[in-house]
Amino acid sequence: LPPILSKSKIAYLLWMQIVKDIPKTSRYTLGNSIDEHFLSMLTFIYTATYQSPTEKVVTLAKAIAHLDLVKFLLSIVWESRTIGNNHYVKLSADLDEIGRMLGGWRKGLIQNR
Fold this sequence. Notes:
Layout: H1 3-19, H2 24-48, H3 53-79, H4 85-111
Helix pairs in contact: 1-2, 1-4, 2-3, 3-4
């Protein structure tokens, strides 16, 4: 697997562990929304690995948009004290690294046009 895909998969596996501990009231609202955007992001990253450079730029922009939504919704879950600091810090660090990787990949493709 490409490093970006491996890193994203590991972050999602961490999220799967965290979501188990979220109270049902939030798990089926914010938790589900985070899960859906996380899976969409993974899908777009996976798809981009097999596309032409021109198609990749558009697909990566979509992956970045879903990543941003995951980060935003995760901050709401943390600010509402639904998840602990340790989980938030670890997952946020992973998501920030994924963001840098996605941004660099997209920037490289744009510069090589």
